[in-house]
Amino acid sequence: MTHIELVPGDEIEVIVAAKGGGSENKSKFAMLLPNDNIVDWVLTQVPTMGADWCPPGMLSLGIGGTPEKAMLMAKWAMMEPINIQELKARGASNRAEELRLELYEKVNALGIGAQGLGGLSTVLDVKVTDYPTHAASKPVALLPNCAATRHAHFVLDGSGPASLDPPNLEDWPKLTLDFATSRRVNLDTLTKEEIATWKSGERLLLSGKLLTGRDAAHKRLIDLMNKGETLPVDFTNRFIYYVGPVDPVRDEAVGPAGPTTASRMDKFTGPLLEQTGLIGMVGKSERGPIAIDAIKKNRAVYCIAVGGAAYLVSKAIRKSRVLAFPELGMEAIYEFDVKDMPVTVAVDSGGNAVHKTGPAEWRAKIGKIPVIAN
To answer: Cα separation of 295 and 287, whole Å?
Structure first.
């Protein structure tokens, strides 16, 4: 989508946002009544967004105008730098800035945390843009932006191509994978008896052969099952990774291969677990009640990889080959050979879900606002 604003001058300023479906699909909009409280509305919406938008990230509100005006204002404001700490230091000078500070504190008090696992940081900044509107209306748009802020900003002045400086890696802390705190798992010899010992919140390192498949592949599989036809892949005691890998370049086994939102596969989970021998799944963010019930019933397990870190996740993938549905491109079923791929058990075989227990525990620790029902 391209939005153009004509202004005086002889330069072109370009702002690009490569936004993923996980965060974009959690966009919210409401036509509130003039006397409705915006803070209360936001605090009821954010918990329903779960971890699909890959917190900690940014929330941007557009208030006023018309519905389309409110949404566009929120999208524009999302392009601005993270500067909530500067605002906290100098203090608010208008109602929009007061609203930014209030929401920043109260949303973080929800305890949702990074990847929805619970913690102090759910939002890194809150943007608020307002505009005059009809006295009988109050359109409010709420847009989230994930932790992977894939933004670019440059100016073309006719002198040549724009030059973009890469981030300074010295600005990040030095981190190494702590193998001592994770359980190593061999996917090639895995059984239901072994996964029954895993607990929600436990960290694993997966090695061996890992199947892939997401929306289109799941639909194909269910269609074949409904027709009584043989599936092209044997899922017995296998794990499937919800991913659409990018094509490799140079010597890569695969391009960026980060997890996609698992809840889109919820309606397929029961039939696959019950009829194919599948015992585990890897994806991003929480599962819904239907999927959790199916996981518990079939004594399966669901794990999460880190959303928004597609390139880093791909470094654990040593080989890749297409097994089925090659015409689907990135949505085909692949088989990855992985080595020490880090994941966390999100729903164990008993149906215990860390996306429920983690935020609840942190909300109680923070203790600033009451629990808000979804």
So the answer is: 10
The lowest-confidence range among 53-57, 75-79, 95-99, 177-181 is 177-181
Structure tokens at 293: 């019930």
Output the pTM of the full model: 0.85
Angle (nearest 5°) at CA 359 between 240 and 51: 45
Question: How confident is the model over 130-166, as pLDDT tens digits?
Answer: 999 999 999 999 999 988 788 889 999 999 999 888 8
How far is residue 327's CA from residue 235's CA, in Å, rounded to a whole number? 20
| CA pair distance 115, 52, nearest whole angstrom | 8
The first and second tokens of residue 336, run together, are 């990855």
| pLDDT tens readout for residues 313-368 | 899 999 999 999 999 999 999 999 999 999 999 999 999 999 999 999 998 888 87
CA dist 22 and 357 (Å) reads 22
Q: What is the CATH number of domain 179-358?
A: 3.20.130.10
Q: How far is CA 170 from CA 56, 81, 163, 166, 354, in A?
A: 21, 20, 20, 12, 33
- Residue-range domain boundaries for the chain: 12-169, 179-358
Distance from C-alpha of 144 to C-alpha of 125, rounded to nearest angstrom = 10
Residue 184 one-letter amino acid: R
